[in-house]
């Protein structure tokens, strides 16, 4: 998976608790993205980053925040998890916007 | 209405069959078109990448884009059991702030049985 590590791989949490997912890349790619994948919806962009401390919202950003303090790390935080945030979360990176995306192996998150 | 529509299947074919996977889209600003393959419990990986209308061939895979009809296809010839996966179409606008922000179809689950 092109040097992209997502942690944890699986997590079960309760409604109302904060959750942080981590994406770590060793490719020195400038751009990083968080997607969620749900049946019937494909992958939808949550947030993306175009450099250290530079982030912006995607199409389904409500209830999520991100931070990128180092090139290699991109964190996704669910401030107060809800059952609708049960999903598989994928991190992706690319060196340039015209280059292909490399995806991590995903984090399966269940909010009970 | 979703910007990109893809029949989720599932699609089951015998080994050696020709497989046709399709997506339609509504946004005429899309200029770059991709097909990703996703094996179970893995992240998607890029299979084919095309710009604007036309065909592109890579081994057993052919991608077609018809911008006038807002329709893209992926053909798999001589399908193999190892082709069993979910296939996702994806597309994005050109330039500006589009970055790597892709719009995906729902994915089609393909099973090739021996």
Which tags fit this structure?
A: 112 residues; mainly beta; globular; B: 114 residues; 0% helix
> Which range does the strand content of chain B fall in?
over 45%
Shape of chain A: globular
Instruction: Specify Rg of chain A, calculated over alpha carbons.
Output: 13 Å
Uncertain runs of chain B with pLDDT below 50, 5 residues or more?
none
The chain-level mean pLDDT of chain A equals 93
Computed CA radius of gyration of chain B, to the nearest angstrom:
14 Å
Q: What summary fits the major beta sheet of chain A?
A: 7 strands, mixed
Form type of chain B: globular
Which protein chains are joined by the largest interface, and how many residues does each one contribute?
A-B, 25 and 22 residues
Number of helices of chain B: 0
Tell me the distance between the termini of chain A: 29 Å
Count of β-strands of chain A: 11
Number of strands of chain B: 11
Tell me the quaternary state: heterodimer
Structural class of chain A: mainly beta
Taking the sheet with the most strands of chain B, its summary is: 6 strands, mixed
H and E string of chain B: EEEEEEEEEEE
What percentage of amino acids of chain A are in beta strands? over 45%
């Amino acid at each position: 998976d092109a040097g992209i590590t997502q942690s944890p791989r699986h997590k079960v949490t309760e409604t109302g608790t904060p959750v942080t997912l981590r994406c770590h890349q060793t490719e020195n790619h400038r751009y990083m993205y968080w997607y969620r994948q749900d049946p019937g919806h494909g992958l939808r962009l949550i947030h993306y980053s175009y450099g250290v401390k530079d982030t912006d919202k995607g199409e389904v950003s409500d209830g999520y925040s991100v931070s990128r303090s180092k090139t290699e790390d991109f964190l996704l935080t669910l401030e107060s998890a809800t059952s609708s945030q049960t999903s598989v979360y994928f991190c992706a990176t690319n060196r340039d916007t015209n280059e292909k995306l490399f995806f991590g192996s995903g984090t399966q998150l269940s909010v009970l | 209405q979703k910007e990109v529509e893809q029949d989720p299947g599932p699609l089951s074919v015998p080994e050696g069959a020709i497989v046709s996977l399709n997506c339609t889209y509504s946004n005429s600003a899309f200029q770059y078109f991709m097909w990703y393959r996703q094996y179970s419990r893995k992240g998607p990986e890029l299979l084919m990448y095309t710009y604007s209308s036309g065909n592109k061939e890579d081994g057993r895979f052919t991608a077609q884009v018809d911008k006038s009809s807002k329709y893209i296809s992926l053909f798999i010839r001589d399908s193999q059991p190892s082709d069993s996966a979910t296939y996702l179409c994806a597309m994005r606008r050109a330039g500006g702030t589009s970055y790597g922000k892709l719009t995906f179809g729902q994915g089609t689950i393909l099973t090739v049985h021996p």
